[in-house]
Amino acid sequence: MNLPSLLLVVGTIGYPLVYTANMAFRDVGIRSFISGEMPWLGFRNFATVLTDSVFIASFVQTLMFVVVSVTLEVAIGLGIAMTINMRNARIAGLTKSLLLLPWAVPPVVNGVMWSYIFNSKYGTLNAILYKLGLIDGYVQWVSDPTLALAAIVVAYVWRTVPFGALLFHAALQTIPESLYEAARLDGAGAWQQWRYITLPLIKPTLVVVLILRTVFSFMVFDEILAITYGGPGDSTWTAAWYIYSFAFRFYKFGPASAASFIVTLAIAAIAALYVWLFYRRVEV
After folding, report:
1. CB count, 10 Å around CB of 243?
2. Is the pLDDT of residue 234 over 80?
3. CA separation (Å) from 19 to 16, 40, 75, 76, 251?
4. In the predicted model, what is the mean pLDDT of the chain?
5. What Å distances lie between residue 20 and 26, 28, 54, 62, 259, CA to CA?
6. Could you tell me the pTM of the whole model?
7. C-alpha to C-alpha distance for 29 and 51, rounded to whole angstroms
8. Closest by alpha carbon to 142, among 177, 179, 114?
9. Is 238 helix (H, G, I), strand (E, B) or coil?
């Protein structure tokens, strides 16, 4: 009964993974797909990628993006979940209605929308900040190398926050109200209730959100494509953008495959580190 699903998984994930791993050790270009000749290079593609300053910078920027975006997603998502979970909260109903809107927006559409918001000439962000007197002149949000990556983070986090918020909300719903009532009778304040009741009971969900959001943040691509296209210069190059550029802009499929394999191993290592540090220590 599971054979059709197994074949589908192998066909859509297993085969591309093996094929990419094979190309990572070969000299692959446009002519290679026509002639079928892919000379064996060994680890030369890996050496090329690991000694490429652009890849190193892209990988460092990816790590920066992951740390900032995951931190914001967890913090904002947990805050929204706690707001929704509040009893008799006036804004809880509205928040529930609006929560899924960003998650429903396709990534490319989200990037195009934020590219208009960040536009330095007619963008709504500059217009609002200027009318509020917070800026003296229009800011080049996506043309400034120091601000471009931050703009990508804002656009990405706006779309992905509902994922964590929904999981945190589901976890909070499973906590019995009687625990909080008993804690209040014992004189526990809001901080003590959060530290000794809420946090321990949502910790399994917190670990899952951290792992999944870290993995997905490594693969950020659509917002970069729509907002900055990797620019200005290489200030918004991430690992995924590096792989895309070398494969489909420069047609260097060997180094691109090697880079994708390196990134895959890095993601697997980080996920394993999360599990080793946090998940096995979770008290369910």
Report:
1. 25
2. yes
3. 5, 14, 39, 39, 16
4. 88
5. 10, 11, 21, 21, 10
6. 0.89
7. 20
8. 114
9. coil
